[in-house]
Design brief:
heterodimer, A: mainly alpha, B: 507 residues, alpha/beta, D-Maltodextrin-Binding Protein, domain 2
Chain lengths: 315, 507
């Protein structure tokens, strides 16, 4: 037993010595990285750690923080808006966001992949990818105009069809659904490119063998291509889950979380509590809850979504 | 004696240390300046006006720079080309040049607010970093919740001093209309800024639409307005342009300010504990705790009146609607507007003639205690409402008398007139005259209510909470009893947050 402990200690020492040796040897590299680390610590880790501490305090950002224990968390969990409405909206928006990011670009990429003419494939790829160059804000303004309740295109169509105009983003009854419809037909250019790259990486001989064996296009997709695209699926899944949980762009630019909190999400409540309410303690508590949710979901995602075949990265 | 040889590595180390030292030195804050000689005029320690009003002179040995964020009154940047036909703003620059001539070692530098920046984020960052302009513009609703964090310097002492630039002035505060003083009175009853100009609110209407709808006489009472809205709707117009979005300007709080004050009238003063003619957030919080705030019957009546407007509001009024554009497009019959719109209407007139009318008078048949008098939103939100960061008292105390002197000079009636002629805002400085186009805003009224109305949820920092209350009540079948329960709950929540940040207001 003592020998085992001594051996472990010696191993740890030699590991530590090895690190020191490497640091001495590559000191210039470490020096070069020091600036980046300093910035990372200052602007990423320190604020995160500070937020964890301040989530247990009442703090207005200026006067000394007062220790409050779990009061902020209790307030968030007890709040009908901050927890009930915001988290249920977030769940719905993230689920829908992930679904549309996974399915529709995949569908588009599969169609382009199957095109025989390279020129046509190139054309459609360009058509789907080109909107990326349009700034997101412009897209938001365009959609807002389409939804405008008094002179917007959608209501003009309804009026032409002798139907009653809707308030779309302006009504608590329709705001969330209207928000979810934005971006139709939901083929995101980046997602499409990621999938297309995955499709193109599938070895041609596998597909040819399947065709020779008489596998239909649908069967090929579900039995061969989709399993081989799992790394892409995982990437898009993680990016969209994290982006969806943290995002509040539409709330900031269009709905302000309303009307009557109909479109609010935790990140928006966090922003509001801090910037407008001066309640940094509560905002930090929401941030900590979001961190726990994101961290857990990422772990689950990494464990649950595994490809049957994963290619090793080559050096 | 041999000199030790420096290896390449040691030399690099030494150079690195020297460079780091130099960088640190460069980044270090400048040494605190030695206390400057006392300026000629210092704030009076007591409330009595000082006897010898003389302009402040900066100590000759030192030069000063006052960074002034003058908002819409900022002179045009000579380096930026203006759109064709637009005249440069020069009035405030002329005023500054005159003052600088008398203060040769002081420079006024204009702070140009970065375009597209969110004001609340900007001010939060500036106050945290303590690098705000020496004089900054801010709407009081953004300031009051933060006053206890030292965002603004107390002007009260200076306000009691004479303005040396205005003949026979005994106290600076006497120069301003009462509503300007009320607007700058903070939650604790002290004055945290100077308000030389401001905004007035009236209802602007489309004369052609009125004619088309068969409205022969300008409406004046609530009943007449309702009749006009109906006629406009029948003629294919949106009766009244408005929305309840939390980012709107400014129908809900203009409406509640004018209606609630009209319903309460002199009853409002029962909450004015310090008798300064302002119902402060502190008074609201204290009376709410005592259980005698607010007048819920009047509040419910106000809500009912607003609900009566619903059929005549634009589709989707619960969220953001650009009813100002709809008005210009000849789709809206009337809406409430601030006088700043005058310059827009002058520069780019709508394709029809416009007129201005007062807010509807609530008659006795609707509210027995009604005074049947004209009420007007008036007060802050002008270009010349200025504050000084509170940290200046510690950081650069010697600069404060100079800044105050500059503001006193700015507030000379002729200077305010010159600036207001360019900004199209209503002077709230006695002796200053508005542009002729602002004549409708000069019409007499019986009472002005501050821009940020009193005694609803708003004055205790709950504007957004109140807007959400309207968003829930107006489009739904919520009963009056339910509405009152929700309103009380909402105010209670707002007061709880206010007390969290102002624990000394707890009863």
């Amino acid at each position: 037993m003592a020998e085992l402990a001594a051996a472990r200690g010696a191993k740890q020492r030699s590991g530590f010595n090895e690190i020191l040796r490497r640091m001495r040897k590559y000191w210039f590299c470490y020096l070069m990285m020091a600036g980046t680390f300093a910035l990372l610590i200052t602007f990423s880790y320190y604020p995160a750690i500070s937020a964890i501490y301040h989530s247990f305090t009442i703090w207005d950002g200026f006067r000394p923080a007062q220790w409050a224990g779990l009061k902020n968390f209790q307030e968030v969990f007890a709040s009908e808006v901050m927890f009930g409405r915001a988290f249920s909206n977030m769940l719905l928006l993230v689920s829908w966001g992930v679904f549309r990011a996974l399915v529709f670009p995949l569908f588009g990429a599969a169609l382009i992949y199957r095109l025989r003419s390279e020129r046509t494939a190139y054309f459609f790829r360009l058509v789907y990818v080109l909107p990326i160059v349009v700034p997101a804000t412009v897209g938001i303004i365009v959609w807002r105009q389409l939804y405008e309740p008094n002179v917007g295109l959608f209501n003009e169509i309804l009026k032409a069809l002798q139907m009653k105009p809707l308030a779309w983003l302006n009504s608590p009854q329709t705001a969330l659904q209207s928000l979810m419809f934005i971006g139709f037909p939901w083929i995101d250019g980046v997602g499409l490119l990621i999938y297309l790259a995955g499709f193109l990486a599938i070895p041609g001989e596998i597909i040819e063998a399947a065709i020779v064996d008489g596998a239909s296009s649908v069967r090929r997709f579900f039995a061969m291509e989709l399993p081989l695209l799992i790394p892409q699926v995982r990437l898009i899944l993680i990016l969209n889950v994290i982006g969806g949980l943290q995002g509040f762009g539409w709330q900031l630019l269009v709905t302000r979380g309303g009307p009557n909190n109909a479109t609010t999400v935790p990140a928006w409540e966090m922003y509001q509590s801090a910037i407008h309410g001066g309640r940094f303690g509560v905002a930090s508590a929401i941030g900590v809850i979001l961190f726990v949710v994101i961290f857990t979901l990422t772990l689950i995602n990494n464990q649950a979504v595994r490809s049957s075949v994963e290619y090793e990265a080559t050096s | 004696m041999s000199t030790p040889k420096l290896s390449r590595r040691e030399m690099l180390k030494a150079l690195g240390l020297a460079a780091a030292g130099a960088a640190l030195t460069a980044c270090a804050p400048a040494a605190a300046p030695a206390p400057a000689p006392a300026p000629a005029e210092k704030p009076a320690a007591k409330a009595e006006p000082t006897k010898a009003p003389e302009p402040v002179k900066a100590p000759a040995a030192k030069s000063y720079k006052i960074v002034h964020m003058a908002w819409n009154a900022t002179p045009s940047d000579p380096a930026v080309a203006l759109p064709p036909g637009q005249k440069p703003q020069v009035a405030y620059q002329k005023v500054a040049d005159e003052w600088m001539q008398a203060h040769p070692n002081v420079k006024i530098e204009w702070y140009r607010f970065p375009a597209g920046t969110n004001f609340q984020e900007w001010i939060l960052a500036r106050m945290t970093a303590q690098d705000a302009p020496d004089i900054y513009w801010a709407n009081t609703e953004d300031l009051w919740p933060n006053i206890n964090k030292g965002w603004a310097l107390d002007f009260s002492t200076y306000m009691k001093m004479p303005n040396p630039y205005v003949k026979d002035n005994k106290q600076w505060v006497d120069q301003f209309e009462e509503i300007a003083v009320i607007s700058q009175t903070g939650p604790d009853g002290k004055m945290y800024g100077v308000n030389m100009d401001g905004a007035g609110v009236l209802t602007v209407y489309n004369k052609a639409a009125f004619k088309k709808a068969g409205i022969a006489k300008e409406p004046s009472t609530w009943g007449e307005f309702k009749d006009a809205w109906k006629k406009l709707k029948d003629a294919g117009y949106i009766g009244h342009g408005a929305d309840l979005s939390v980012s709107t300007c400014c129908f809900p709080h203009w409406f509640s300010g004018q209606t609630y004050s009209q319903l309460l009238w002199d009853d409002i003063w029962k909450w004015d504990d310090d008798k300064n003619r302002v119902i402060t957030a502190k008074e609201v919080a204290v009376h709410f705790q005592k259980g005698d705030f607010m007048d819920w019957d009047a509040y419910l009546r106000m809500a009912q009146l607003m609900k009566e407007m619903v059929p005549y509001l634009p589709v989707g009024y619960e969220g953001q609607v650009n009813y100002r554009d709809l008005f210009r497009q000849d789709k809206v019959g009337m809406y409430m507007e601030g006088n700043w719109a005058i310059s827009d209407f002058t520069k780019s007139p709508p394709p029809f003639e416009i007129g201005w009318i007062h807010f509807p008078i609530v008659t006795k048949d609707l509210w027995p205690k009604s005074q049947e008098k004209i009420i007007r939103i008036q007060g802050a939100w002008g270009a010349m409402q200025y504050h000084i960061p509170g940290y200046m008292a510690q950081k650069e105390p010697d600069k404060i008398p100079l800044i105050m002197d500059w503001l006193m000079y700015s507030s000379k009636p002729e200077n305010v007139t010159a600036v207001c002629n360019e900004t199209s805002l209503v002077p709230l400085t006695k002796g200053a005259t508005p542009r002729p186009e602002l004549a409708p805003f000069g019409q007499p009224y019986d009472r002005a209510t501050p821009y940020q109305s009193w005694c609803t949820l708003q004055c205790s920092y709950g504007m957004e909470a109140e807007y959400k209350l309207w968003q829930a009540y107006l489009p739904s079948n919520m009963s009056d009893a339910q509405f009152l329960t929700e309103a009380k709950k909402s105010l209670g929540e707002v007061v709880r947050k206010v007390l969290e940040q102002n624990p000394d207001w707890k009863v």
